[in-house]
């Protein structure tokens, strides 16, 4: 996946602010995990969508933005962490096909009726339909927190939505605006057992 594609996968605020129909952040956490035991963190060595041995600008910005969010919640970066952070982004080309009854036109084949009468109710209007095909790109972005000792996922946030061209224009700003929206769904601070907010 090249850099522009990864940038698009972020979806900037388009995905997060509901500008795209049906897009939202979904998150969940392990209710059985003892979050009061988590005070330190670090990143998986191969965190991010790269398949090469270098870290793309996307991943560099993601690490910086996630670090800022973790630090703000009292977590300390460590070489011997309680939590490991992983993240990913992927794009998929999608095709949407919709079929609907076509507007009745008396100028076409049925013009001989001149608009004076409609067909009887047993007649199927479905014979006259319009099919619309639209192609778009769907992006998915994940951020995971993993319990190092148990090697178990304890929190995840996922966003899925359509990608717009304007998401390619400012990658760093896109990351810095998007990542906090993921962490707005994270319910804990470092070393605390009581969630920041109550579940709705």
Please characterize this protein's 3D structure.
This protein has 200 residues and is an alpha/beta fold. It has 2 domains: 3-96 and 133-183, Double Stranded RNA Binding Domain; 100-131, no CATH class. Helices cover 21% and strands 30% of the residues. It contains 4 helices and 6 strands. The protein has helices at residues 3-10, 12-16, 57-72, 171-183, and strands at residues 24-29, 40-43, 76-77, 83-101, 129-147, 152-162. A 6-stranded mixed sheet has the order 1-6-5-4-2-3. A hairpin with a 4-residue loop joins strand 5 and strand 6. The longest helix has 16 residues, at 57-72.
Summarize the structure.
The protein has helices at 3-10, 12-16, 57-72, 171-183; strands at residues 24-29, 40-43, 76-77, 83-101, 129-147, 152-162. By secondary structure, it is of the alpha/beta class. It is globular.
Please give the largest β-sheet.
Answer: 6 strands, mixed
The end-to-end span amounts to: 38 Å
Mean pLDDT: 74
Which geometry do the CA atoms define? globular
The number of helical elements comes to 4
Please write the string of helix (H) and strand (E) elements: HHEEHEEEEH
The overall strand count is 6
Give start-end ranges of low-pLDDT stretches: 11-22
CATH topology of the largest domain: Double Stranded RNA Binding Domain
Radius of gyration: 24 Å
CATH class of the largest domain: Alpha Beta
Helix/sheet category? alpha/beta
Range of strand content: 25-35%
Counting structural domains, the number is: 2
């Amino acid at each position: 996946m090249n850099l522009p594609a990864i940038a698009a996968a972020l979806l900037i605020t388009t995905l997060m602010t509901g500008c795209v129909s049906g897009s939202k952040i979904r998150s969940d956490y392990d209710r059985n995990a003892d979050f009061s035991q988590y005070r330190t963190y670090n990143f998986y060595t191969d965190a991010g969508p790269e398949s090469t041995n270098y870290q793309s600008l996307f991943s560099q910005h993601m690490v910086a933005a996630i670090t800022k969010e973790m630090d703000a919640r009292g977590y300390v970066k460590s070489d011997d962490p309680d939590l490991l952070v992983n993240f990913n982004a992927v794009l998929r080309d999608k095709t949407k096909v919709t079929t609907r009854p076509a507007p009745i036109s008396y100028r076409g084949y049925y013009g001989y009726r001149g608009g004076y009468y409609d067909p009887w109710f047993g007649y199927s209007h479905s014979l006259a339909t319009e099919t619309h095909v639209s192609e778009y790109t769907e992006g998915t972005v994940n951020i995971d927190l993993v319990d190092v000792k148990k090697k178990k996922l304890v929190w995840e946030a996922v966003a899925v939505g359509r990608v717009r061209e304007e998401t390619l224009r400012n990658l760093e700003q896109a990351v810095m605006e998007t990542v906090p929206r993921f962490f707005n769904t994270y319910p804990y601070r470092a070393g605390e057992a009581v969630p920041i907010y109550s579940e709705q």
